[in-house]
Write a structure and sequence with these properties.
- This protein folds into 2 domains: 255 residues, Aldolase class I (TIM Barrel, Alpha-Beta Barrel), CATH 3.20.20; 71 residues, Non-ribosomal Peptide Synthetase Peptidyl Carrier Protein, Chain A, CATH 1.10.1200.
- It is 44% helix and 12% strand.
- The protein has 15 helices and 9 strands.
- Strands 1, 2, 3, 4, 5, 6, 7, 8 and 9 form a 9-stranded parallel β-sheet that branches.
- Helix 4 runs parallel beside helix 6, helix 7 runs parallel beside helix 8 and helix 9 crosses helix 11.
- The longest helix is centred in the last third of the chain and has 18 residues.
- The radius of gyration is 20 Å and the shape is globular.
Length: 347
């Protein structure tokens, strides 16, 4: 990878004329869509901490068309989160387009995003997500169907992986096909479907995609610090980046990244008190939004998230064990007080 620019790549966003978050001098940082993670509450937290663009958890087009209340819930977002896109998956362009029209009518998102990258078996088994990387005609039919349905109302974007496996890395060809179908932004996760989330993201392929198409390309993979973002901005032609797993336990990564991009300096580590305050706030918001106010059920579902938040805390191993059993906010408040006290920070 080098710094020499072609006529395409990062500057191409200025020709799209639609997506204002790619305006002159901007380098947007997206929160990646993650099933079971990037719900309405977590997106709001990340927005407060500096994320520029939100994308919902992936939503089943068929669930939308069947008027599934649970599926529709995934399309909800607050005005504060804008610009925000709703991400759809499916394998029928007509049905996907119909679902997209419904979503636009309900919420008027800033864009509709198409998922061609999810590696999860239950999505791939339904011919969705990254399975479409193996079937370019079907992928094109899906993309074109959604663009026809909503392209005049909101932009259509897409997220892909670099290929199905190491023997079929086809991200450049897929990206060109998507552009031909009218897709206006492409996010590229630098792993194949076969890699899942293992191994190392291939930023050479991401860069090749960014230089090959005349629309903004968003790079995703192995971004965990401001220095990581600055390097990819410096060394590739991407128009922005997308942070996923690194934000799960450290949503402050967006604040750090913005600070580093502006100053070239890494800010001081987030204090333990601030970390615990956010954990507690997140828990209270989840409980407040829980169906019928079921605190136990809400926090049982939060346990994995809590353990992720607490990586690197003093006494983290013992703390994670205790968090596996919490059923009330009061218990978490007690754990926070104990943790801060052990660190000499208690009141």
């Amino acid at each position: 990878m080098g710094t020499q620019r072609s006529g395409r790549g990062r500057g191409a966003e200025l020709r799209s004329g639609v997506l204002e978050w790619f305006g002159k001098g901007r380098f947007p940082v997206y929160l990646a869509p993650m099933a079971g993670v990037t719900d309405d509450i977590f997106r709001g937290i990340c927005k407060e901490l500096g994320a520029d663009v939100m994308v919902t958890e992936l939503v089943s087009a068929e669930g939308i068309l069947q008027a599934d209340g649970r599926t529709r819930k995934y399309t909800e977002f607050s005005e504060f989160q804008r610009p925000v896109g709703v991400q759809l998956f499916g394998a029928d362009g007509g049905r996907m387009g119909e679902a997209a029209r419904k979503i636009v009518a309900w919420k008027r998102p800033d864009f509709i995003d198409l998922n061609f990258g999810c590696p999860v078996n239950k999505v791939v088994a339904r011919n969705g997500g990254s399975s479409l990387l193996k079937d370019c005609p079907l992928l094109a039919a899906v993309a074109a169907g959604v663009v026809r349905a909503v392209g005049g109302q909101v932009p259509v974007t897409a997220k892909i992986r670099i290929g199905w496996d190491a023997q079929s890395i086809n991200a450049v060809a897929i990206a060109k096909t998507l552009v031909d179908c009218g897709v206006q932004v492409i996010a590229v996760h630098g792993r194949t479907r076969s890699q899942g989330y293992g191994g190392v993201a291939n930023w050479e392929v991401i860069d090749a995609v960014a230089r090959a198409v005349p629309v903004p390309v968003i790079g995703n993979g192995d971004l965990a610090s401001g220095a990581d973002l600055a390097r990819r901005k410096r060394e590739t032609a991407v128009a922005g980046v997308m942070i996923g797993r690194a934000a799960m336990g450290n949503p402050w990564v967006f604040r750090e990244a913005k600070h580093f991009l502006k100053t070239g300096e890494t800010p001081a580590p987030v204090r333990l008190e601030e970390r615990w305050n956010l954990v507690l706030r997140h828990c209270r918001l989840v409980v407040d939004s829980a169906r019928h106010g079921n605190e136990r059920q809400a926090l049982t579902a939060m346990r994995t998230r809590l353990m992720t938040y607490c990586r690197g805390f003093p006494g983290a191993k013992e703390l994670r064990h205790k968090l596996c059993h919490v059923i009330s906010v009061g218990e978490i408040e007690d754990l926070a007080a104990c943790s801060l006290g052990q660190a000499g920070l208690g009141g």
